[in-house]
Amino acid sequence: MFQTCRLWNLSIASVLALTLSNVFLTVRLLHSGDCNQYSSADEGVSMVPRAPVLTPATCLEYVLAESLANSTDKAVFSGLDLRLGRWDTRRLYKIFDFAVVGERYPELSGTYSVCLGTQSSLEKIYSLVQVSHHWSGPISAAIFAAGNDELYLVQIYLSYLRACFRPIRERVSFHLVLPRERAPTHLKSVHVSDYTRFDCAKPEATLNELLKQRKPDTSKWRIKNPYPQNHLRNVARKGCQGSYVFLTDVDIVPSVSFAEQLDKFLRKQKPHHLTAFVVPTYELDERVRFPRNKTDLIRLANKGLARPFHHKVFIYNQFATNFSRWQADVSESDETRVSHNVTNFEFLYEPFYVAPDTVPPHDERFLGYGYTRNTQVYEMFVAGYQFQVLTPLFTVHWGLQNKKSRPAWRERQNNVNRKYFEVFKREVHVDSL
After folding, report:
1. How far apart are CA 262 and CA 394, in angstroms?
2. CA 196 centroid distance within chain
3. In a domain, 211, yes or no
4. Alpha carbon distances (Å) from 320 to 241, 284, 341, 352, 360
5. Organism's domain of life (predicted)?
6. Angle of CA points 372, 378, 381, to nearest 5°
7. Claim to verify: residue 122 and residue 259 sit in the same structural domain
8. 240 and 271, same structural domain?
9. How far is CA 263 from each of CA 22, 329, 357, 387, rounded to the nearest angstrom?
10. Which of 67, 118, 264, 290 is the most exposed place for a label (fewest CB within 10 A)?
11. Final residue of a structural domain among 224, 251, 278
């Protein structure tokens, strides 16, 4: 019969050996489990809307110890010389390409044929947590910051994300875009304690707390001045190294295992530079969990808990994708394939799509909201691109949108861009002759 072992009956050497053994075992288990991952429930699918279920805040203690070997003990942009960078064509924005490089970004860029290009302002960067957990390939992210105070908050938050979430630290390369009018004059010192004091399990709450520190004049400037979406899209795309680019906004979340399935599909395709693969995008009620697969998404759509993106705000935004046909195309196989061609292209169509890195750039005359993405898609259509809808891949935007939730300043920006569009349309048609 085994005897009960009492600690005080062990020798000092035994105690030390046992302690070291436990330490190494604990570290090994933590490393293999990765506190950055989803909980084991639902096979890696998030049980909450906006972020993965994470382990308690003690996880940060382990991450910080690990970060000593991963260079996350220094804040992002450390040593960045703000006198350098490059200007856009009209010298409105200064750009710093690869201000932060993901630790595995070069390796992943060589492994995957497709790169996810995305862009964000400070308010929405938290979406990268879920995006990076669903997308296993390289991610090129362009980030906008206005003024010294906002750049300081971006430094803290990106440093926090990299310390807490391995997928972000490894997969995401960040590019910085600064407006000339409010170009920061210097980088404020950021200490490790400035971003390690936050709870890794609460990325959205952490960002909201930081946003309270933004100066009122910066917030007013941001409302008054249009957000340079197309500049950021072009910067993100330039940072991608693969043959294909999947260009999205930061709050567009790919379905689970998206990159692996898409990469398999693309490697089977014969090279054709005039094809764009459309990925259906749905709005999702914030009370439900992220759909496991297409079948789960259709079930939510039938209950009114999911619907095509911008369906109530502006139906023509995604209408040509033909969601009814996509939902009717059900297969037991999870292999990515073309469901159908877009045959009813309508002006103002702006799908999220995967295409070779040869498509026209986004026109940077369009600032703010309105005519930013659909003009680029229209130029592709005039040039002869064929849009093909993929299945069963999809993307999700959290929240069922309506027109009442749109601020007045968005409509003002839309009216300004409408005038630019008349010039743009004439140019496109002349070039196509």
Report:
1. 11
2. 22
3. yes
4. 30, 20, 10, 12, 20
5. Eukaryota
6. 150
7. no
8. no
9. 41, 21, 15, 18
10. 264
11. 251
Q: Which of 235, 251, 267 is a domain's end point?
A: 251
What are the DSSP calls for 280-324, one per residue? Answer: -EEEE-TTSPPPSSHHHHHHHHHTTSEEETTTTT-GGGTGGG-HH
What are residue 92's phi and psi, to 5 degrees? -95, -25
Please state the domain count of the chain.
2
C-alpha to C-alpha distance for 122 and 115, rounded to whole angstroms: 22
User: What DSSP letter does each residue of 352-384 carry, written as one string?
Assistant: EEEEETTSPPPPTT--SSSSSSHHHHHHHHHTT
* Structural domain contains residue 342: yes
| CB neighbour list of residue 6: distance below 8 Å, 6 or more residues apart | none
| Tens-digit pLDDT string for the chain (433 aa) | 433 333 333 344 443 444 444 444 343 333 433 444 443 333 333 334 454 434 333 344 334 434 433 456 789 999 899 999 999 999 999 999 999 999 999 999 999 999 999 999 999 999 999 999 999 999 999 999 998 999 999 999 999 999 999 999 999 999 999 999 998 888 999 999 999 999 999 999 999 999 999 999 999 999 889 999 999 999 999 999 999 999 999 999 999 999 999 999 999 988 778 999 999 999 999 999 999 999 999 999 999 999 999 888 888 789 999 999 999 999 888 999 999 999 999 888 999 999 999 999 999 999 988 889 999 999 999 999 999 999 999 999 999 988 776 677 777 888 888 888 888 888 887 666 5
Q: How far is CA 242 from CA 110, 197, 239, 246, 336, in A?
A: 7, 37, 9, 10, 19
Alpha-carbon distance of 180 to 144, in angstroms, equals 12
Residue 413 in any domain: the answer is yes
**pTM score, two decimals?**
0.83
- Domain hosting 414: range is 255-432
DSSP 204-258: HHHHHHHHTTS-HHHHHHHHHSPP-HHHHHHHHHHH--SSEEEE--TTEEEPTTH
Tokens representing residue 205 in the block: 């709450």
User: Where do runs of H (alpha helix) occur along 121-215?
Assistant: 128-134, 147-164, 166-171, 192-196, 203-211
